[in-house]
Specification:
By secondary structure, the chain is α+β, with helices and mostly antiparallel strands. Helices cover 38% and strands 16% of the residues. The protein has a 5-stranded mixed sheet, sandwiched between helices. Helix 8 links the parallel strand 3 and strand 4. Helix 2 packs across helix 3.
């Protein structure tokens, strides 16, 4: 049945006006974003197929353009609209909009900022945060995407950027898609390797924070940077 053939109060847009967006199902909300279906499928049917591609609504944040385009009824424009809505929702839900100029006092601040953008993705990302003499954050830079090992992350890129922005301290951040927050042997080796290089440049390593959807692990909090 097409949307226009449904009783008026069963149509997603009309229901949103009648009962509010919070009372609509995931299917109904997606059908509003999708707008129209095809000759043989309503927007609700297209939305249902999209939902069948994921285990739960949280997984929608990881859906990509090609997966969306593979669904009958979702073309280029609709795929872009959906991705834009997902990203906008992610930004709205951030408790910390920007970490620039924030003074580093504890790892939970870093976790709050990165938990949505790193905690749920399927690839590892390695980010370096650069801080000034007062431990205020100057900038962040994504330095690597892939499996993090001490041989894959390039120290040259890390310390070149530190020189360019006159950083005094560094914080390393990366994610574990597995959800296991405990640092691996490679995580530990990488941290100590980078700390040794940083000492040569008189740069301090404040922390290495591992982020997952379940929480975080801080090398600093756990005393792993002592000695």
């Amino acid at each position: 049945m097409k949307i226009k053939e449904l009783p008026v109060l069963d149509r997603p847009r009309e229901r949103l006006l009648e009962v509010g967006s919070s009372n609509l199902s995931n299917e109904e909300l997606l059908s509003i974003i999708i707008k129209t279906g095809t000759k043989n499928r309503s927007s609700k049917e297209v939305a249902n197929e999209l939902l069948s591609k994921i285990n739960n609504i949280n997984d929608l944040r990881n859906i990509d353009y090609n997966t969306l385009k593979s669904i009958n009824g979702i073309g280029c424009v609709k795929a872009i609209d959906i991705l834009a809505c997902i990203e906008l929702g992610s930004r709205i839900n951030k408790t910390i909009i920007s970490i620039n100029n924030i003074k580093f006092n504890n790892p939970s601040t870093i976790f709050e900022y990165y938990k949505d953008s790193l905690g749920y993705i399927k690839q590892e990302k390695f980010i370096c945060i650069y801080l000034d003499t007062s431990k205020k954050i100057i900038k962040e830079k994504l330095l690597f995407i892939g499996t993090i090992t001490h041989s894959m992350v390039q120290p040259r890129e890390i310390f070149k950027e530190a020189y360019l922005c006159d950083a005094t301290f560094l914080i390393f951040v990366h994610n574990h898609p597995s959800g296991n927050v405990i640092p691996s042997k490679d995580d530990i080796n990488l941290t100590y390797q980078l700390r040794s290089i940083a000492n040569l440049f008189n740069i301090g390593i404040l922390d290495h924070i591992i982020i997952t959807k379940n929480g975080y692990y801080s090398f600093y909090e756990n005393g792993d940077l002592n000695g």
